[in-house]
Amino acid sequence: MFSSILLALNQTCHPLYSTKFLSKIKEIKFIPEENQEPRNGFRYSIALFQEGELTFSFTLTEVNGHYYYTEPDLFPIVDNFYKTLDGPEE
Questions:
Q1: Which residues are bridge partners to 49 per DSSP?
Q2: What is the biggest distance separating any 2 CA atoms in the chain, rounded to whole angstroms?
Q3: What is the rounded CA–CA span in Å between residue 21 and residue 19?
Q4: Which end of the chain has the smaller Cβ count within 10 Å, N or C?
Q5: Across the strands, what pairs with 50?
Q6: The pairing of beta strand 29-32 with beta strand 12-16
């Protein structure tokens, strides 16, 4: 299990509760985009840490340099989770 997850928006990171967040996204299917040309920018970046070490990271449309779309759409799930976080922004 991951000890922490960071959700980055405009270079701001928020610690998230691993189990709660992962339970919301665990069934999402990542389907490869036909167009794999490089792109710039992202809305959110998710980074998974275990014992303080980065173990995996991805954006809403890119994993390990490959572009995907998701079913269901990942953006509303991550956006809602971010908007309902407790505590001040860091």
A1: 4, 54
A2: 40
A3: 6
A4: N
A5: 53
A6: unpaired
